[in-house]
Write a structure and sequence with these properties.
two-stranded antiparallel sheet; binds beta-D-glucopyranose; 14 helices
């Protein structure tokens, strides 16, 4: 199967940069929030290693790269912009461009500066204006080096875990908060979309949506179907609609899809079926779902599809090649216009509330020494890029020997 889209990796500032920033995640993790008590202060120390990290990317032959900016570094206090942070990101973007890699920037990836959060975060009355001021500054300062932007990463996940289940900062726990922060992010996205296009008419702007394939736990149970549908509507349908094509305009130039797993829904049934393939975090592996979510929304969403994230937690690199192959195969079966595939991720990342334990990288990170070591999946990924295909030899070498762990069977 030939692959006719660009391939690269996706990252997020808080998850790899390390160092200090006055963000809600730094504060929450300092107070012992993460499962292993780690904080984003260590992470991959990418802030001090951009040169060698870009070399690693270049070594795998990628042509595209999705990176995040830390808003709190750029605007540490309301209305005060730090020129050294901008200089740093200019340096990183220049390195990428010199390596022939086209950058896509994420402006907000799950993390608020504390000052913004204190004003209510995206629930605040003027949130869109605060966000817009930051976005305008960034586009003015970096716009000669980049013209592709994800405004907000996974609004639904940020709202759900931070404002409904309270598992994440800012630890709020109400359906009203969930809905109002979602509304605030949609408004902020639209505002940013308009502002960016004013400064860069040719820019490509969109949201990276977290999409799951919701399935009924019992295939013949109408109630389970209804629950699956309801969950899908509440969790993802409306935010996709509100940030794509509406009566008042297209709000995206590409359809950004982050896809990891499926959900089995039903009364008392929302568990991974026994025997189903799962990753190290117990998430069900369901490659067909990637094709299905793209097809479900692609028509409503103008522009090409960017798979802005797809990947897995696999500490032993025991099944990552198989997972990559099966998701790329699923993309090969769609008629949708797939333009990009960004694998999550290149070096192991600080995984939010899960801390340092889950291993999502094709390159292993030793957090103590900061040593980076290519896993076999890095070679496989580079081979796909070089051949613009998964060759029969590559399948034989990297994919065929691998099997997935499975969920325990229950009685
Ligand atoms: C997020 C990433 C995260 C990844 C793996 C996505 O939902 O955008 O920040 O690391 O999933 O959990």
């Amino acid at each position: 199967m030939g692959i006719n889209f660009d391939m690269g990796f996706a990252t997020a500032a808080t998850q790899i940069e390390g160092g200090d920033a006055d963000t809600i995640w730094h504060r929450w993790a300092d107070a012992g929030g993460a499962a292993d008590n780690s904080t984003p202060r260590r992470a991959g120390d990418h802030w001090n290693r951009v040169e060698s990290d870009v070399d690693l990317l270049r070594g795998m032959g990628v042509t595209i790269h999705r990176m995040g900016l830390e808003w709190a570094r750029i605007e540490p206090r309301q209305g005060f912009f730090d020129t050294s942070a901008i200089q740093h990101y200019r340096h990183e973007l220049t390195l990428l461009r010199d390596a022939g890699i086209t950058p896509l920037i994420t402006l907000h990836h799950f993390n608020d500066p504390v000052w913004f959060s204190d004003l209510g975060g995206f629930r605040g009355k003027l949130a869109h204006e605060h966000f817009g001021r930051y976005v305008t500054h960034v586009v003015q300062e970096l716009g000669d080096l980049v013209d592709e932007w994800v405004t907000i990463n996974e609004p639904n996940v940020f709202a759900y875990l931070g404002y409904f289940t309270a598992e994440w900062p800012p630890v709020q726990h109400s359906i009203v908060a969930y809905l109002s922060v979602m509304r605030g992010m949609i408004r902020a996205h639209r505002h940013a979309y308009t502002l960016i296009h004013r400064l860069q008419p040719h820019a490509k702007v969109g949201v990276a949506h977290h999409l799951r394939e919701f399935l009924p736990a019992r295939r013949r149970n109408p109630l389970d179907w209804a629950i699956a549908r309801g969950a899908r509507l509440l969790f993802q349908d409306w935010v996709v609609r509100a940030t794509s094509r509406t009566r008042r305009g297209p709000w995206a130039d590409f359809f950004g899809v982050n896809y990891y797993t499926t959900m089995r829904m039903g009364i008392g049934q929302d568990e991974v079926p026994g025997g189903a393939p799962v990753n190290n975090l117990g998430w069900e592996i369901y490659p067909e779902g990637l094709k299905r979510v793209i097809e479900r929304y692609a028509e409503r969403c103008p522009g090409p599809v960017f798979v802005t994230e797809n990947g897995t937690a696999d500490a032993d690199d025991a099944f990552r090649c198989r997972l990559i192959a099966e998701h790329l195969d699923a993309l090969g079966r769609t008629d949708a216009d797939i333009e990009r595939y960004y694998h999550w991720t290149f070096i192991d990342n600080w995984e939010w509330a899960e801390g340092e334990d889950p291993r999502f990288g094709v390159i292993a990170l030793n957090y103590e020494t900061q040593e980076r070591t290519r896993r076999p999946s890095a070679d496989f990924y580079a081979d796909i890029i070089a051949n613009k295909a998964i060759t029969p030899d590559a399948r034989k070498r990297w994919v065929d020997p691998q099997t997935y762990p499975t969920a325990p069977k229950r009685n």
